């Protein structure tokens, strides 16, 4: 008999950001029961769980609004104890601002945080010591708005996607310098293969003002890490925002779909799509309809379950990746927040 995908998850927790309402909510991974919420600074975006320090990091990116349309950029990271659901510390990165993407190197105790540029200098990545929770330095990315950031498993190379700049910034994490620019037509989410040989990047940048005929083909650009060049495209029907690679080698892409609306030139959101590829063979394995505007994706450590946060519907879809069937939908409206964004899966304490 096949084991239930929920079996053995007792004590595990899913953390979810509500961008509006400014909370991080915690749900029991076995039962989906809401365990409680923590109030954080306005406009929280992404989450990253550090299993060594057993702390949850949360970026707050803007005072209000979003990329391209905001009332000013924040400078803070909030550190949360996920077991007691209490704030440990709020770290101010000023003069750095617009913190968003998070990537963790557990072996070296380093957290990498993408930050936006200003008139005086380009965007970059702030390096933080996870033990002291203090910045160690900065790596320039030569682009105004690095948004998502990912590193290889060896902790030697990092990649920043840039919404407007026509390249992915490649940085040497050991030397702290920009080493290459992989040409793509603006980019969103990304993931690095387990062996570090390939980088999967959502492109082009999601400009809803552009019609389908005016923008490059939508999909996942496959970048050869050795040459920093695109070697192929995994095609999708719509613009992709989040990309996630599971421990079992499945590449997950969240497609944002729009439909005509006579009252808006941009249209209105239609149900999104979770598209699944085999990261090794690039074969399309299937797809599943999800909520409105999939914005972040994560998976359980065993790679069996996917979690897709959908911003406009304020929901999180829980998907069985073996059967590609939806198991449940978490609704943030009952937790005091809305606009689902960052996600983190938190295994129970050892």
UniProtKB/TrEMBL annotation:
<dbReference type="InterPro" id="IPR011045">
    <property type="entry name" value="N2O_reductase_N"/>
</dbReference>
<dbReference type="InterPro" id="IPR015943">
    <property type="entry name" value="WD40/YVTN_repeat-like_dom_sf"/>
</dbReference>
<dbReference type="InterPro" id="IPR051200">
    <property type="entry name" value="Host-pathogen_enzymatic-act"/>
</dbReference>
<protein>
    <submittedName>
        <fullName>YncE family protein</fullName>
    </submittedName>
</protein>
């Amino acid at each position: 008999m096949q084991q239930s995908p929920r079996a053995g998850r007792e004590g595990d927790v899913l953390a979810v950001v509500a961008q509006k309402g400014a909370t991080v909510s915690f749900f029991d991974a076995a039962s989906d029961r809401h365990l409680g919420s923590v109030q954080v600074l306005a406009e929280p975006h992404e989450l990253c769980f550090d299993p060594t320090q057993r702390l949850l990091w949360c970026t707050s990116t803007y005072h209000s609004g979003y990329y391209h349309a905001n009332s000013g950029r924040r400078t803070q990271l909030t550190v949360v104890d996920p077991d007691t659901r209490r704030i440990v510390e709020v770290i101010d990165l000023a003069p750095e601002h617009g913190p968003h993407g998070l990537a963790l190197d557990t072996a070296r105790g380093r957290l990498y945080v993408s930050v936006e540029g200003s008139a005086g200098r380009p965007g970059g990545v702030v390096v933080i010591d996870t033990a002291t929770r203090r910045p160690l330095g900065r790596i320039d990315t030569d682009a105004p708005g690095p948004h998502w950031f990912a590193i290889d498993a060896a902790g030697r190379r990092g990649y920043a996607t840039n919404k407007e700049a026509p390249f992915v910034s490649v940085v040497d994490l050991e030397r702290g310098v920009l080493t290459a620019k992989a040409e793509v037509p603006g980019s969103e989410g990304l993931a690095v293969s387990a062996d570090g040989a390939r980088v999967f990047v959502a492109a082009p940048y999601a400009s809803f003002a552009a019609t389908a005929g005016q923008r490059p083909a939508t999909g996942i650009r496959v970048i050869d890490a050795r040459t920093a060049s695109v070697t192929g495209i995994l095609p999708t029907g719509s613009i992709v925002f989040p990309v996630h690679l599971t421990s079992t080698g499945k590449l997950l892409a969240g497609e944002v779909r729009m439909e005509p609306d006579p009252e808006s030139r941009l249209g209105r959101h239609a149900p999104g799509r979770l598209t699944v590829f085999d990261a090794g063979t690039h074969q399309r394995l299937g797809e599943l309809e999800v909520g409105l505007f999939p914005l972040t994706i994560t998976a359980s450590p065993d790679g069996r379950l996917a979690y897709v946060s959908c911003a406009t519907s304020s929901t999180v879809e829980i998907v069985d990746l073996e059967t590609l069937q939806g198991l449940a939908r978490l609704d943030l409206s009952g937790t005091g927040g809305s606009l689902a964004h960052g996600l983190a899966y938190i295994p129970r304490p050892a």
